[in-house]
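Model it.
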Amino acid sequence: MKKQKFELRDDKIKAAFEKLKKEHPERLKNRLNLSWSNWGFGLESLEDTLARLSKNGVEYIELHGNHYGPNMGYNVKETLALLDKYNMKVSGTCGMFSTENDLSSNKPQKRQAAIDYIKRELVFTKEVGGHYLLVVPGAVGRPNANDSSEFFRSSETLRQLGSEFERQGIKAAIEPIRSAEVSLCHTVKDAKNYIKAVAHPAINHINGDVYHMFTEEDHIGEALLDAGELLTNLHMADSNRCALGDGFMNLDIIIMSLYLIGYNTDGKYVTPEPLGPGGDPYPAMNSIPDQKELDELVEKSITYFRERESALCD
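Modeled.
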């Protein structure tokens, strides 16, 4: 039977991975760094989150960027104490961008709010040992453009913060998001064009998200190869935005692609973020979660990921 087009594209990645495995087995020795994005855990205490992740062998956490004002968000001293208690490290901070702190807004005060927010999160990320801050070029939850100048305003505004990213030693990880949720920057190609427009050496990384890639990319594996060394974090969820292994996503192709770009190294993270099906996961951010469901979500995702990784690399 003649193979489908996506299968032929899969086959190219499989062949390249097998070649890598045969000719350079040493490049498969180090395993991918697993993190977890905790903003979907809502109002759960950070200690409960860290205890769950540590129990499941997760070494890193992507912290909710919850410093929405000078008196809000995680306390540095308390956060460091909890990280030490559970032997955990911070991969980075998940920046949260809405219409209230929109880099692309046609209202200057909203762009100023985005600048102030990013500055707060950069200081926090540096102090807790994180490596990147996720940045979304436009407001999440506003899929319709205000006008034709959004790209220009966003890139110009973020460029002003280049020296701050540089001074703090934090990577700006630009995240493409599906067009149902944002008005600009939907693909890896879009993110690369945006980075080029910002034109600052400190703003030169990408945060991928396979859930958004299902909608926007022609082929997830090829998009990861295209991102290459710019990719610093990859959010993960299965095709139904639930636990890894609960949908029809070809996880093997994703893992192979990551090894092909040398992603199994320091400063590169695979970060599950299974937010559940539906169009709007954001109300959960300010709600009390079901901890039993979260326990199962983490255990299933981490176990399945490591099983597939071992099946490919051993």
